[in-house]
């Protein structure tokens, strides 16, 4: 990919340089052709040139002094003076821009004439600042013993302006190539991360499903033993075990299905007015056995004066369950969870504060991403698929509520939910 980007960029740059050289060559050819045309007009024997020479000779005879154009050196011989008379008579300063324009060149031009010794014999005072440039200019044409030279002060700007579209096209193509390269690199990195997450998900899913299936299988085999019928306590224990593991399997499947519905946008909400305090107590009653197994304790500080919200009972119950389940999974020792509520101007704020292992700063922004699980070492140390908090975030978004997390490693986490009252919800 890098090689392709470098190759394409090199090709574009080489093409651009070739275009610049070609444009420069065309410009040079047109200028030289114009100069040759002027030189031919000044040097060829023609009626017009003969008339100019005769007028100069007649004036010379009248004064008995060979007329030299004004401002010229007296060191010029007669042929040089004659040629300069032609230059002035033809108004070459004005003629050259016209001929250049006929060849498609319409930029300011400085015109001068140099003698055989490389000294300027025709150069306006205002153009004297360009003398050094005229001495080295490549745009020259001989007119007998003299040398006609021109200079373009704005040539570079003119050529760049002519090639501006090509520069823009090249820049755009290189930018597109760079963007494509960047997108490919970031896409590959993202796909690699997703593949790793999916691999961890499948490993953990297999592990999670195998445990209850194996337990149910072993309990079923034990119940086949005739002696088991004679021991009611053991019989009831295995029956209860099968029941619990079956509920666990159902919960795992339900979590995956709910996450799938949330991602596809097919989640259906049946909105109604709910007392969020009563809903929290109902969920706690259902998970009381799991909390006791972990030696946990849940403290309620439900202080909201008006605990009514407009929400879907099933999904909001799942939200509360997922947050409690998350606290159970990541508890540092025995679970200590505090659930509190406060009244807000828009509804009710709920806080779930646990004593878990906490979340590092670099992971806080990702905990609500689908399939993302905060690294804890072994992928099986903490049960789950990385779907719970993603589902919670989706449900809150659909309810026009918000959720955020505050956490530090070793200090637990606090999930803060904001739910709206009935009159402000859709």
Question: What do you see in this structure?
Answer:
The chain is of the alpha+beta class and 426 residues long. The chain has 3 domains: 2-162, no CATH class; 186-266, Helix Hairpins (Orthogonal Bundle); 268-424, 2-Layer Sandwich (Heat Shock Protein 90). The protein has 13 helices and 11 strands. The protein has helices at residues 2-43, 47-63, 78-89, 92-102, 131-136, 155-162, 164-223, 232-264, 276-286, 288-293, 313-329, 361-364, 388-398; strands at residues 110-114, 120-122, 140-143, 146-151, 271-275, 297-302, 308-312, 336-343, 347-353, 402-407, 413-420. It has a 5-stranded mixed beta sheet with strand order 6-8-9-11-10, with helices on one face. Helix 1 packs antiparallel against helix 7 (164-223), helix 8 (232-264) packs across helix 13 and helix 11 runs antiparallel to helix 13. The longest helix has 60 residues, at 164-223. It is rod-shaped and about 150 Å long. It starts with a helix and ends in a 6-residue tail after the last strand.
SSE diagram, text form:
Layout (H helix, E strand, L loop, with lengths): L1 H42 L3 H17 L14 H12 L2 H11 L7 E5 L5 E3 L8 H6 L3 E4 L2 E6 L3 H8 L1 H60 L8 H33 L6 E5 H11 L1 H6 L3 E6 L5 E5 H17 L6 E8 L3 E7 L7 H4 L23 H11 L3 E6 L5 E8 L6
Parallel strand pairs: 6-8
Antiparallel strand pairs: 1-2, 1-4, 3-4, 5-7, 8-9, 9-11, 10-11
Helix pairs in contact: 1-4, 1-7, 2-3, 7-8, 8-13, 9-11, 11-13
